[in-house]
Design brief:
Blueprint (H helix, E strand, L loop, with lengths): L2 H16 L11 E5 L16 E5 L4 E5 L2 H13 L10 H9 L4 E12 L13 E4 L24 E9 L2 E9 L5 E8 L8 H15 L3 E6 L4 H9 L2 E12 L3
Parallel strand pairs: 1-3, 8-9
Antiparallel strand pairs: 2-3, 2-10, 4-9, 4-10, 5-6, 6-7, 7-8
Amino acid sequence: MTYTDIRRIALEQSAIDAGCTPEDFTAGEIRTCISRHHPDARKYLKLPLFCDFSSYGSGIVVSACSEEIAALGKKYAEENPYPYTFETPSLHKLIEVFAPYHAKPYFMAEYFLPDPALVPDLPCPYPTKILTPPDFTDLYKPEWGNALVEKRKELDMLGVGAYDGDTLIALAACSADCDSMWQIGIDVLPDYRHLGLAKALTSRLTREILARDKVPFYCAAWSNIASVRNAIACGFRPAWVQLTCLREEN
Protein backbone atom coordinates (compact mmCIF):
# COMPACT_ATOMS: atom_id res chain seq x y z
CA MET A 1 0.00 0.00 0.00
CA THR A 2 1.45 3.37 -1.07
CA TYR A 3 0.73 6.83 0.29
CA THR A 4 -1.38 7.45 -2.81
CA ASP A 5 -3.49 4.40 -1.95
CA ILE A 6 -3.82 5.53 1.66
CA ARG A 7 -4.91 9.04 0.72
CA ARG A 8 -7.47 7.68 -1.74
CA ILE A 9 -8.97 5.44 0.96
CA ALA A 10 -9.11 8.39 3.37
CA LEU A 11 -10.82 10.57 0.78
CA GLU A 12 -13.39 7.84 0.14
CA GLN A 13 -14.06 7.55 3.86
CA SER A 14 -14.35 11.30 4.30
CA ALA A 15 -16.88 11.33 1.47
CA ILE A 16 -18.95 8.68 3.26
CA ASP A 17 -18.74 10.65 6.51
CA ALA A 18 -19.74 13.94 4.87
CA GLY A 19 -22.27 12.69 2.32
CA CYS A 20 -20.39 13.84 -0.77
CA THR A 21 -17.94 12.43 -3.33
CA PRO A 22 -14.15 12.11 -2.91
CA GLU A 23 -13.71 14.56 -5.77
CA ASP A 24 -15.50 17.26 -3.78
CA PHE A 25 -12.48 17.42 -1.46
CA THR A 26 -10.00 17.99 -4.28
CA ALA A 27 -12.04 20.37 -6.44
CA GLY A 28 -10.30 23.45 -5.08
CA GLU A 29 -13.57 25.20 -4.27
CA ILE A 30 -16.29 25.32 -1.63
CA ARG A 31 -18.83 22.54 -2.05
CA THR A 32 -21.87 21.70 0.06
CA CYS A 33 -23.71 18.48 0.81
CA ILE A 34 -26.36 17.17 3.19
CA SER A 35 -25.22 15.18 6.22
CA ARG A 36 -27.10 11.90 6.60
CA HIS A 37 -26.80 8.66 8.50
CA HIS A 38 -24.56 6.11 6.77
CA PRO A 39 -23.78 2.60 8.02
CA ASP A 40 -20.14 2.85 6.91
CA ALA A 41 -19.37 6.22 8.51
CA ARG A 42 -16.85 6.52 11.32
CA LYS A 43 -18.53 4.98 14.35
CA TYR A 44 -18.11 7.94 16.71
CA LEU A 45 -19.78 10.45 14.37
CA LYS A 46 -23.28 11.42 15.47
CA LEU A 47 -24.87 11.81 12.06
CA PRO A 48 -26.42 13.89 10.73
CA LEU A 49 -24.07 16.67 11.77
CA PHE A 50 -25.41 20.18 12.23
CA CYS A 51 -22.54 21.63 10.16
CA ASP A 52 -19.06 20.35 9.44
CA PHE A 53 -16.21 21.99 7.54
CA SER A 54 -13.53 19.66 6.14
CA SER A 55 -10.52 20.38 3.96
CA TYR A 56 -7.69 18.35 2.47
CA GLY A 57 -5.92 21.63 1.73
CA SER A 58 -7.66 22.34 -1.57
CA GLY A 59 -11.10 23.76 -1.12
CA ILE A 60 -13.66 23.02 1.59
CA VAL A 61 -16.60 20.64 1.92
CA VAL A 62 -19.47 21.97 4.02
CA SER A 63 -21.65 19.09 5.22
CA ALA A 64 -24.82 20.27 6.97
CA CYS A 65 -28.15 19.01 8.26
CA SER A 66 -30.19 21.09 5.80
CA GLU A 67 -29.87 23.20 2.67
CA GLU A 68 -30.40 26.31 4.78
CA ILE A 69 -27.50 25.53 7.12
CA ALA A 70 -25.29 24.43 4.21
CA ALA A 71 -25.89 27.79 2.51
CA LEU A 72 -24.96 29.66 5.69
CA GLY A 73 -21.83 27.53 6.06
CA LYS A 74 -20.83 28.17 2.46
CA LYS A 75 -21.34 31.92 2.82
CA TYR A 76 -19.16 31.91 5.95
CA ALA A 77 -16.42 29.97 4.12
CA GLU A 78 -16.59 32.33 1.15
CA GLU A 79 -16.24 35.37 3.41
CA ASN A 80 -13.47 33.71 5.42
CA PRO A 81 -11.42 31.77 2.83
CA TYR A 82 -9.29 28.74 3.69
CA PRO A 83 -7.30 28.48 5.91
CA TYR A 84 -8.94 31.27 7.94
CA THR A 85 -12.21 29.32 7.85
CA PHE A 86 -10.77 27.18 10.62
CA GLU A 87 -9.16 29.87 12.77
CA THR A 88 -9.96 32.75 15.06
CA PRO A 89 -10.96 35.55 14.66
CA SER A 90 -13.10 34.11 11.86
CA LEU A 91 -14.64 31.58 14.24
CA HIS A 92 -16.14 34.43 16.25
CA LYS A 93 -18.17 35.28 13.15
CA LEU A 94 -19.27 31.66 12.79
CA ILE A 95 -20.49 31.65 16.38
CA GLU A 96 -22.68 34.64 15.53
CA VAL A 97 -23.98 32.98 12.35
CA PHE A 98 -25.18 29.86 14.18
CA ALA A 99 -26.28 31.50 17.45
CA PRO A 100 -29.95 31.74 16.31
CA TYR A 101 -29.88 27.95 15.81
CA HIS A 102 -28.42 27.31 19.29
CA ALA A 103 -25.34 25.79 17.67
CA LYS A 104 -21.64 26.62 17.80
CA PRO A 105 -18.18 25.19 16.97
CA TYR A 106 -17.38 22.17 19.15
CA PHE A 107 -14.59 20.07 17.66
CA MET A 108 -11.44 21.14 15.81
CA ALA A 109 -8.76 18.67 14.79
CA GLU A 110 -5.98 17.91 12.35
CA TYR A 111 -5.68 14.40 10.93
CA PHE A 112 -2.53 12.63 9.75
CA LEU A 113 -1.92 9.73 7.37
CA PRO A 114 1.27 7.64 7.18
CA ASP A 115 3.61 7.42 4.24
CA PRO A 116 4.67 3.74 4.39
CA ALA A 117 8.04 4.65 2.90
CA LEU A 118 8.72 6.97 5.83
CA VAL A 119 7.52 4.90 8.80
CA PRO A 120 10.68 4.15 10.80
CA ASP A 121 11.64 1.06 12.74
CA LEU A 122 12.56 2.75 16.00
CA PRO A 123 14.21 1.04 18.97
CA CYS A 124 12.37 0.98 22.29
CA PRO A 125 14.34 1.29 25.55
CA TYR A 126 11.96 -1.18 27.25
CA PRO A 127 10.55 -4.58 26.23
CA THR A 128 7.39 -4.44 24.13
CA LYS A 129 4.45 -6.74 23.52
CA ILE A 130 1.67 -6.92 20.94
CA LEU A 131 -1.73 -6.71 22.63
CA THR A 132 -5.14 -7.85 21.38
CA PRO A 133 -8.65 -7.21 22.76
CA PRO A 134 -8.47 -9.84 25.55
CA ASP A 135 -5.40 -8.01 26.89
CA PHE A 136 -7.34 -4.73 27.15
CA THR A 137 -9.88 -5.93 29.71
CA ASP A 138 -8.18 -4.42 32.76
CA LEU A 139 -6.68 -1.41 30.95
CA TYR A 140 -9.71 0.86 30.69
CA LYS A 141 -8.28 3.37 33.13
CA PRO A 142 -7.63 7.13 32.92
CA GLU A 143 -3.92 6.69 32.27
CA TRP A 144 -4.72 4.84 29.03
CA GLY A 145 -7.59 7.11 27.98
CA ASN A 146 -6.01 8.18 24.69
CA ALA A 147 -5.06 4.69 23.58
CA LEU A 148 -8.31 2.95 24.62
CA VAL A 149 -11.89 4.23 24.75
CA GLU A 150 -14.12 2.38 27.19
CA LYS A 151 -17.44 3.53 25.73
CA ARG A 152 -16.40 2.05 22.37
CA LYS A 153 -14.27 -0.82 23.62
CA GLU A 154 -15.67 -3.16 20.98
CA LEU A 155 -13.75 -1.12 18.39
CA ASP A 156 -10.33 -1.48 20.07
CA MET A 157 -8.42 -3.88 17.83
CA LEU A 158 -4.70 -3.91 18.48
CA GLY A 159 -2.04 -2.43 20.71
CA VAL A 160 1.67 -2.31 21.47
CA GLY A 161 2.69 -1.99 25.10
CA ALA A 162 6.03 -1.22 26.70
CA TYR A 163 6.86 -2.72 30.10
CA ASP A 164 9.18 -2.00 32.98
CA GLY A 165 9.22 -5.43 34.55
CA ASP A 166 5.55 -6.38 34.90
CA THR A 167 4.35 -2.76 34.80
CA LEU A 168 2.80 -1.34 31.65
CA ILE A 169 4.43 2.06 31.16
CA ALA A 170 3.32 3.05 27.66
CA LEU A 171 0.56 1.95 25.33
CA ALA A 172 -0.25 2.64 21.69
CA ALA A 173 -3.56 1.17 20.56
CA CYS A 174 -5.98 1.55 17.69
CA SER A 175 -9.73 1.47 17.18
CA ALA A 176 -11.57 0.32 14.06
CA ASP A 177 -13.44 3.57 13.63
CA CYS A 178 -14.56 2.35 10.21
CA ASP A 179 -13.95 -0.73 8.12
CA SER A 180 -10.86 0.51 6.29
CA MET A 181 -9.24 2.90 8.78
CA TRP A 182 -7.95 2.36 12.33
CA GLN A 183 -7.22 5.37 14.54
CA ILE A 184 -4.09 5.37 16.74
CA GLY A 185 -3.92 6.74 20.27
CA ILE A 186 -0.86 6.81 22.54
CA ASP A 187 -0.30 7.18 26.30
CA VAL A 188 2.95 7.18 28.29
CA LEU A 189 3.10 7.29 32.09
CA PRO A 190 4.53 10.63 33.30
CA ASP A 191 7.73 9.18 34.78
CA TYR A 192 8.62 7.55 31.45
CA ARG A 193 8.07 10.44 29.06
CA HIS A 194 10.79 11.97 26.84
CA LEU A 195 12.50 8.59 26.44
CA GLY A 196 11.29 7.87 22.90
CA LEU A 197 8.54 5.47 23.97
CA ALA A 198 5.72 7.26 22.14
CA LYS A 199 7.62 7.25 18.86
CA ALA A 200 8.75 3.64 19.20
CA LEU A 201 5.26 2.32 19.97
CA THR A 202 3.41 4.51 17.46
CA SER A 203 5.71 3.55 14.60
CA ARG A 204 5.52 -0.15 15.55
CA LEU A 205 1.72 -0.06 15.72
CA THR A 206 1.56 1.78 12.40
CA ARG A 207 3.53 -0.99 10.72
CA GLU A 208 1.35 -3.65 12.36
CA ILE A 209 -1.83 -1.98 11.08
CA LEU A 210 -0.45 -1.64 7.56
CA ALA A 211 0.52 -5.32 7.63
CA ARG A 212 -3.18 -6.08 8.21
CA ASP A 213 -4.16 -4.05 5.11
CA LYS A 214 -5.82 -1.32 7.14
CA VAL A 215 -5.09 2.41 7.00
CA PRO A 216 -3.71 3.88 10.24
CA PHE A 217 -4.69 7.45 10.97
CA TYR A 218 -3.77 9.84 13.74
CA CYS A 219 -5.65 12.83 15.15
CA ALA A 220 -4.23 15.76 17.10
CA ALA A 221 -5.48 19.07 18.38
CA TRP A 222 -3.88 22.16 16.82
CA SER A 223 -2.29 23.02 20.17
CA ASN A 224 -0.86 19.58 20.97
CA ILE A 225 2.69 20.15 19.74
CA ALA A 226 4.04 16.96 21.33
CA SER A 227 1.40 14.83 19.61
CA VAL A 228 1.99 16.47 16.22
CA ARG A 229 5.74 15.95 16.57
CA ASN A 230 5.15 12.32 17.42
CA ALA A 231 3.02 11.83 14.31
CA ILE A 232 5.58 13.41 12.01
CA ALA A 233 8.47 11.48 13.58
CA CYS A 234 6.57 8.25 12.89
CA GLY A 235 6.14 8.92 9.17
CA PHE A 236 2.75 10.63 9.21
CA ARG A 237 1.85 13.62 7.05
CA PRO A 238 -0.84 16.26 7.70
CA ALA A 239 -3.81 15.12 5.59
CA TRP A 240 -7.01 16.95 6.45
CA VAL A 241 -8.61 19.29 8.98
CA GLN A 242 -12.13 19.38 10.38
CA LEU A 243 -14.26 21.90 12.24
CA THR A 244 -17.56 20.52 13.52
CA CYS A 245 -20.44 22.64 14.79
CA LEU A 246 -23.15 21.05 16.94
CA ARG A 247 -26.40 22.16 18.46
CA GLU A 248 -25.92 22.98 22.14
CA GLU A 249 -28.12 20.11 23.33
CA ASN A 250 -25.62 17.67 21.78
